[in-house]
Amino acid sequence: MWIIYIGISVKTILEISRTKSYRNVHGILLLTTVSTQSIVLLLNTVFKEFPDIFNLSLLIIGFCSYLVCVFFILYRYIKNSWSIEMDWNNTNCILHGALSISGIACLVTGIISIDTIRLIWRAALIIFITVESIEIYRLFKWIKHYGIKKAIFIYDVTQWSRVFTFAMFYTLTTLIHTHLFIGSIVIDTILNVGVWIVIILLMFELMLCFSDLIKDIKQSTSQIGKENEVSSPI
User: Fold this and answer.
1) Looking at the chain, which terminus has fewer C-beta neighbours within 10 angstroms, N or C?
2) Where are the beta strands (DSSP E) in the chain?
3) CB 160 within 8 A of CB 205
4) How far apart are the first and last CA of the chain?
5) Where are the domains of the chain?
6) Which of 104, 95, 101, 174 is nearest to 134 (CA)?
7) Within a 10 A sphere around the Cβ of 38, how many other Cβ atoms?
8) How far apart are CA 86 and CA 101, in angstroms?
9) What's the CA angle centered on 74, arms 173 and 77, to 5 degrees?
């Protein structure tokens, strides 16, 4: 299945490049990297001695797809005019999530030096701060234009990507925090606060999901009731 997915993804990326259709690309492209590194984690969990050559090949595929997708995303926002309220996608948080899971995959395989993984973490941290700063700014713009209810309490399935990306960055930090030579305040804050942020995000998304589901059920029930009234001969 992964091979089929990667094949379709490569075809799509080539089509985007051929037609110069960069205007609508966003973080969803990075699922090519996420899926590849997930395969690395799965294989190294199931098989204790998975061949290094296969690990290295998969890691290279994952990182290459990451660089290509990041280029497309940056090209979109640099070369085209855009509005942060309308054109910044929820899935762009995968920019740091894909890098975080790549760092985890490198660590699990044991074939990548800790110095390299440390650099990956630092890059993920910088991208995390950049992307989430944009997200916070977008949130304030949304609140200003649409109000708190429509800006925050509206369910969108793409919001789940944020739960994943935060969890991946927290996991990577937890696994290598003893090898990170930066201020202890930064590490302690991530380790102590990060897990609660992930839990809060998860609970909030579940609340929005169930609320949206209940709303859809009520609307469907109401619609069926109206149709029955119309079709009734009495």
Assistant:
1) C
2) none
3) yes
4) 55
5) 2-212
6) 95
7) 16
8) 28
9) 125
Confidence tier at 49 by pLDDT (50, 70, 90)? confident
DSSP string, 69-87: HHHHHHHHHHHS---HHHH
Nearest to 67 by CA among 79, 57, 56, 59: 59
How many angstroms separate the CA atoms of 59 and 56, rounded? 5
- pTM, two decimal places: 0.89
What tens digit of pLDDT does each residue of 148-184 get?
Answer: 988 899 899 999 999 999 999 999 999 988 777 666 7
In the chain, the amino acid numbered 18 is R
What one-letter code names the amino acid at 176? I
The token pair that represents 5 in the structure block: 């997915």
pLDDT at 218: 85
From 19-23, 52-56, 143-147, the region with the lowest mean pLDDT? 19-23
- Residue 104 CA to residue 193 CA, distance in Å, equals 20
Give the CA-trace dihedral at 19, 22, 27, 31, to 10 degrees.
Answer: 10
102, 63 contact by CB (below 8 A): yes
